[in-house]
Automatic annotation (TrEMBL):
Belongs to the LysR transcriptional regulatory family. One of its GO terms (cellular component) is cytosol. This is LysR family transcriptional regulator. Residues 1-58 form the HTH lysR-type domain. Keywords: DNA-binding, Transcription, Transcription regulation.
Amino acid sequence: MDIRHLQYFMEVARRQSFTKAAQALYVTQPTVSKMIKNLEDELGFVLIERVGKRIALTDAGSILYAQAKQIVSSFDLVTSRLTDLMELKTGRIRIGMPPMIGVSFFPKMIGKFREQYPKISIQLFEHGAKKVEADVETGELDIGVVLLPTKEELFESFCFVRQQLMLVTPPDHRLADRSEAALGELKDESFLFFHEDFALHDRIIAECERQGFEPDIVYKSSQWDFISEMVAAGLGIALLPEVICNELDKQRLRVIPLNKPVIPWHLAIIWRRNSYLSFAAREWIAFAQKTFQHIP
């Protein structure tokens, strides 16, 4: 038995005619008769009595008809919802991103996406890039925003921002008037860092160690604006991405390009390689690629 058996049976029962049912179903009358006969043979009951030119449901037919209405209705609902998903009318996307990234790049894009797909629910989770990557790997998130490099064997990705870290100091700092600074010049400085679950935490430490020193970390935070305020108060220096530095108060802080080495800050959207991705999530990725294609 498949859903067509029940649909044909219900149409005959509603119209009390094989001929009218065939016309409504756009098939031949023998096709309808054969379908009903197959259904009766499979169930082992006569479902429809033929009384002269009229037809009527047997007791078994009446029981099946009552149940078939629920089954066909549920099937139609499932079909409708799946169609909505395929046509991107509904759906849910779980996206993880570090707080500083979300504020800088995504509000307008998410707003435009919602305008186009108002019934797709977007759930945002703010975590450091390390946790975002781990949650995408386990399937707790559909999509994540992380700092490159990432695990290419586990994730598909596309890079949407290529910037670098900048040195941020108070105005009276010894390097405040420099046009650029080398990382090695900072070995005796007090550093203000992001927490350990931020990819920048390990990235900066690794670069400092390559320059022959371990940074003296005096405070860690998950909020870039709090870090910048502590720099302005003279509590230390920070290395922050260009996009954040563009938001800083240049009267209270100095932003100096960092070289020798340049520390890249490349952001990517990731999703699990070789895993199911919903229609809505796929459309969000395509939408993001189109939106960010002109961002340096």
